[in-house]
Amino acid sequence: GKDGYRHFMEKELHEHPVAIGQTLQRVTDPVTRRITLPDFPFNAAELPRATISACGSAYYAGLVGRYWLESLARLPVDIDVASEMRYRAPPQPDQGMALLISQSGETADTLGVLRFLKEAGQKIVSVLNVEHSTMGRESDLVLGMVAGPEISVASTKAFTAQLTVLAALALTFARERGTLDTAAEQELTAALLDLPSRAAEIFSHLEGIRDMARVVAQARDVLYLGRGSCMPIAQEGALKLKEISYIHAEAYAAGELKHGPISLIDQTVPVVAIAPSTILFDKMLSNLQEAKARGGRILAFTDAAGAEKLKDVAEQIVVLPDVDAFVAPILYAIPVQILAYEVALLKGTDVDQPRNLAKSVTVE
Ligand code: F6R
């Protein structure tokens, strides 16, 4: 049941800290406290390339995964949505890895890519919530996210659990490929293990997100901006808003704003910024100043240091716990999903069963 929550989505949003925590438990050695994954069906040090494919939110998790695999493990990654990957038919290296990401393990497009890449000689690694699924049976290795059942059509906790597995994968590959020293590995692992507590803190400050929701609920169009590993979080935010509140939203890499979409900006188009204090923050800040100068209403998710710099730029700021830039996409996904939920509540839509959508898409 819903355990006293109004919707499964609300319940599942509150399960983010537990989903991340259980997933971490699965991938952490209890004695050494190091991230430890099951043996790979290949030598990670010699892996030439990885291909990632998935649909919807799982694809956005894959985009963050690419960022981590490339930056931490120096592994070249090709990525596309599953419905395009097969037909684009990118050339595959010998002994490459195909990484498929799916909550259900039954999504037709993703399963199609799995079979296509298996045929092309790739080793199949799947990140799945439902491990005993069709994709689970056909994979060489299943990395389970331990999110528990997800009933709400809109994906919530499975998304942060997917990201947690991908972060663990990137750290493991980095260790095996010798691209991260022990001190750095320990620091990033600590940031990851700390995440369930940081995530839980978000739920004691929901008022700021509700204030933001009142602005967003009045809009017809909303822009979401992100940069770097938080760009896919902007995409996730825009997808979730469209999906359950039926408000049109688009995500852009903040630097792309001036190459086109800035012409849309006026008082009626709120701009939601995913802006943790990372090395990209100052660039994001100047993009937001440009948007504000055109009358844009800036709604920002940031941390204490970012809030200080954004105070004259953003109309509303939700201050999130300070975390290492590595785990910021996982933490920031949570308030972004809560925002969509709060907007849907104000709009009075059928949150758990949005129109035209099914939980698992088993046709192409
Ligand atoms: C978004 C959402 C969908 C799914 C997509 C993939 O909230 O729920 O975009 O993420 O249909 O589904 P799985 O992960 O089951 O393959």
From TrEMBL:
GO terms for biological process: amino sugar biosynthetic process; carbohydrate metabolic process; fructose 6-phosphate metabolic process; protein N-linked glycosylation; UDP-N-acetylglucosamine metabolic process. One of its GO terms (cellular component) is cytosol. Signal peptide: none annotated. Keywords: Aminotransferase, Cytoplasm, Glutamine amidotransferase, Repeat, Transferase. GO terms for molecular function: carbohydrate derivative binding; glutamine-fructose-6-phosphate transaminase (isomerizing) activity. Residues 37-179, 212-354 form the SIS domain. Homodimer. This is Glutamine--fructose-6-phosphate aminotransferase [isomerizing]. The lineage of its organism: Bacteria, Pseudomonadati, Pseudomonadota, Alphaproteobacteria, Acetobacterales. The chain holds residues 245 to 608 of 608 of the full protein.
